[in-house]
Amino acid sequence: MSATKPPASPHGALRRIFGGLGMVLGGKAGAGLISLVYLVIATRALGPSDYGVLILVHGYVTAVCGIVEFPSWQAVVRYGAEALHAGDDNRLVRLLHFGARIELLGGVAAILTTALFAPLIGPHLGWSKAAMTLALPYSLAVLGSIRSTPAGYLQLANRFDLIGLHNLVAPGVRLIGAVLAVFAGWGLTGFLLVWLAAAVCEFASLWALGLWQAHKRLGKRLWRPASGSPVKENPGIWRFLLASNADVTLSELAVRAAPLIVGWVMGPAAAGLYSVAQRSTVLISQPAQILGNTSYPELARMAAAGQGGTALRRTLLKVTAIALGASLPVVLIVWAFSKQIVALIAGPAFAAATGLMVVLVAARALALVGPPCTAALTALGRPSWSMGANLTASLVWLPVLPVLLHMFGLVGAGWQAIGQALFASFLLLVLAWKRSAGR
């Protein structure tokens, strides 16, 4: 494979960033439509309480996984960009093996941790008897998140089209399974098994796509890499991995912990209402996260080519401004039609989620600044700065959530999200600007 040329200009990088975003969003758009259909089926089949239990079981698994897992995609992209820039395929192959090993070991640890603590946490979250029975096997749903190494390679190879295609896998499995669960009368147990099957398919399909593309480009070297030390030839990789993983964990901690805190304080039905309200934020949150992911390879290439100063700042500002501008119509639509949206996706039993939905969408819009700034800091070799900002925001605002729930009811979760989004976005923007100064 020939060395990858550095980006010619910030405008070219911007086109590639939003080109990648468009490819992934194509898959996300289809996935969103499919998700809407299975959500309509699940909420009406289960009602607020059982749907809340489904959300709490899955939310517990993803929360524990987010803390224990060890994704490697950021290291694959950052150090892989350097290997491609130098034309060193053997270094890239060793990096992929290294990333895969540590991620799969982290996945095993996450499965075991999830299974160990499920019997202790479940009763406090109001899990039903059926949910408690399936708690141990459902720990395998962790696999749905153990797929960052192939995702990192596909980003590095600019195969965002395949990432977009992969986005259809889990929603597709859930939709087919939800229909079967309703017609067969499987109830909550059936839906839990369907969600588990979707996670396993999500894991298997992305690894298959990543291995296919890596073999296609790297050939037999992928399976039998030349001798060498990925740690020695990628200086600082362990420090980078630890910092970037801590950053990912902390940046997603509030989103993953909030439904569990709501369920702990107010019960499964309230968690079900919160989940329905949060569903509308996917219109903003998923494009925001994808934007951060698609920005990162380009920003990493710019940094590797010595373009980490003014050019990177200009690209970062344009990406952030476009993202904020694009979110405004979504916020206005949700505000104007919140009652109709809740009635469409969940039915009248979930009408109490209306007010919270509007506030959560506004919070997500404010948080759009975060993913591009995090991508910039990581590309510039300072994921620990992003980690510090997200840690500070979580430590300040997560403890406030139970208090706000007691004071304002369920809508208190929305006010907590607003405060944390503003706080974290401001810190990340200041740090990204400071790090890029003088480069």
In short:
The chain is mainly alpha-helical and 439 residues long.
Cα-based radius of gyration, to the nearest Å: 21 Å
Shape: globular
* Tally of separate helices: 20
Proportion of β residues? under 5%
**Separation, N- and C-terminal Cα atoms:** 29 Å
Would you count the extended β strands for me?
0
How many distinct domains?
A: 1
User: Which blocks of ≥5 consecutive residues have pLDDT under 50?
Assistant: 1-9
Query: What pattern of helices and strands is seen along the backbone?
Result: HHHHHHHHHHHHHHHHHHHH
Oligomer: single chain
Measured as a percent range, the helix fraction is over 70%
* Structural class category: mainly alpha
Largest sheet: none
Average pLDDT figure: 83
Structural overview:
The protein has one domain (10-435). It has helices at 10-68, 73-86, 89-121, 129-133, 135-138, 148-156, 160-166, 169-184, 187-218, 230-233, 237-266, 268-279, 282-304, 310-336, 338-345, 354-366, 370-379, 383-397, 400-408, 412-435. Helices cover 81% and strands 0% of the residues. The longest helix has 59 residues, at 10-68. By secondary structure, the chain is mainly α.
Write the layout of secondary structure elements.
Elements: H1 10-68, H2 73-86, H3 89-121, H4 129-133, H5 135-138, H6 148-156, H7 160-166, H8 169-184, H9 187-218, H10 230-233, H11 237-266, H12 268-279, H13 282-304, H14 310-336, H15 338-345, H16 354-366, H17 370-379, H18 383-397, H19 400-408, H20 412-435
Helix pairs in contact: 1-3, 1-7, 1-8, 1-9, 1-11, 1-12, 1-13, 1-14, 2-3, 2-6, 2-13, 3-6, 6-9, 8-9, 11-12, 11-18, 11-19, 12-16, 13-14, 13-17, 14-16, 15-16, 16-20, 17-18, 17-20, 18-20, 19-20
